[in-house]
Amino acid sequence: MQGQGNETRKSPILPYSKDTTVAVQAGSSSQRQNKQNLDYVLRTGLAGGLAGCAAKTIVGPLDRVKILFQASNPQFAKYTGSWFGVVTAMRDINRQSGLRGLFRGHSATLLRIFPYASIKFLAYEQFRAVLISTPAHETPLRRLLSGAAAGVTSVFITYPLEVIRVRLAFETKHEARSSLSGICRQIYREQQQQPQPARISTTSSAAASAGTAVPVLPTTTTTLTPRTGLVNFYRGFSPTLAGMLPYAGMSFLTHDTAGDWLRRPALAPYTTIANPNHASSAPPILRYWAELIAGGFAGLVSQTASYPLEVIRRRMQVGGAVGDGHRWGMTETAATVWRERGWRGFFVGLGIGYFKVVPMAAVSFYVYERGKVVLGV
Predict the structure, then answer these.
(1) Cα–Cα distance between 105 and 108 in angstroms, integer?
(2) Exposed, middle or buried, 17 (CB in 10 Å: 0-12/13-18/19+)?
(3) Secondary structure of residue 286 in the 3-state scheme
(4) Alpha helices by DSSP H, the chain
(5) What is the mean predicted confidence (pLDDT) over 350-375?
(6) How many alpha carbons lie under 13 Å from residue 217 in its C-beta half-sphere?
(7) Average pLDDT in the 32-49 region?
């Protein structure tokens, strides 16, 4: 008991972290148990879902334009490569379809982003509870692994909604716009084009010269059944999975690390306020501008690390909407992007990506952290 008391008195000098609370600092397992109860999961999930919706709504128009650029939509390919092109593309969309055009696919976005962000944030807290059970385990690698695992979990569950959203955003013709149900049916029924099996005559030359009728037998070929159904809703999942590892991992790692820097003793009086829900030994809350800086920097780093894989993913997702329906693999898509534009092709629209992801990540982390305070977690 005496040892535990000493541990409690010394704990405030340890680096602050999101997961560090009084119970954990005291060497107790009660915090891990609390994180696994239904009340904590629901509150954390609600805070995460609201954070995701708020962030996506702010950058909805930019997200629409970025998808059109990434997927090389023929109508908007001429606008890529400059900020003026972004403004011109948004003006054209507004002229053709009005404000609703700038938020084309946004309903599907919110339908996807609430469960996605909810699962991502609550999964991160759960993985942290396992991998970072004490302040001594608070290492960059464990933060990275916790974030990557949370990202993979959330994207696997919600990926079909992302495919639907991208397909809705990719459409630009006003007279040919599809409904949400129509897009779902179209994706479900899409088939990969398969070559017809050849038929080769086995009639010998001797039999032919003798005028003997010999049956024509088809060669034995293996024909792949065209893939339809739910598998179509996971188009581009392999680069998504590969991209989510650096994106989610670097996002949470950078945010938590930036939070540690901003809570250093020299800056804490200017960057933090007391946490009203916990004892004084809990991490103080970052002021609104400090939290926005930490979240925005996290978005900048994570976007840079994962953007090439995001470009490949977008091209694979819209594969059934353009061309002859041929389903490209990850390697084939990457080779096509390289042939078309070289290494710059993997970063097309990155400027828009920064302009979108930085405020989105900043708002997302801010709303999440403030939401936890309001909900008492």
Answers:
(1) 5
(2) buried
(3) strand
(4) 2-10, 22-25, 30-35, 38-58, 60-70, 83-97, 99-102, 106-131, 140-170, 180-189, 205-210, 237-262, 268-271, 288-317, 330-341, 350-375
(5) 90
(6) 7
(7) 86
Token pair 């004084």 is found at 280
Q: Determine the longest span between alpha carbons in the chain, in angstroms.
A: 107
The number of beta carbons lying within 10 Å of the beta carbon of residue 139 is 11
Cβ atoms of 309 and 330 within 8 Å: the answer is no
Residues 6+ apart with CB under 8 A from 348: 69, 70, 80, 81, 311, 341
What secondary structure does DSSP assign to 228-257, as a single string?
A: -GGGGGGTTHHHHHHHHHHHHHHHHHHHHH
- Counting residues of the chain whose pLDDT is more than 90, the rounded percentage is 32
Single-letter amino acid, residue 62 = L
CB atoms inside a 10 Å sphere around CB 142 = 17
Name the more confident of 102 and 124. Answer: 124
Contact 55, 119 (CB under 8 A): no
* Residue 20 confidence (pLDDT): 41
How many angstroms separate the CA atoms of 222 and 81, rounded? 45
Both ends of the chain: CA-CA distance in Å? 28
Q: Has residue 108 got a pLDDT over 80?
A: no
CA distance readout (Å), 78 to 86, 90, 98, 191, 199: 10, 13, 21, 30, 46
Write the CB contacts of 272 (distance below 8 Å, at least 6 apart in sequence).
Answer: 262, 263, 284, 285, 286, 287, 290
Single out the residue of 287, 282, 294, 291 nearest to residue 14, CA to CA: 282
Task: Evaluate the CA torsion angle 348, 351, 355, 358 in order and state its sign.
Answer: positive
262 contacts 226 by C-beta, under 8 angstroms: no
Record the pTM. 0.68
For residue 305, the SS3 value is: helix
Q: Show the tokens assigned to 343.
A: 């290494």
**pLDDT for 80:** 66
Tokens of 77: 């390919």
159 band by pLDDT with thresholds 50, 70 and 90: confident
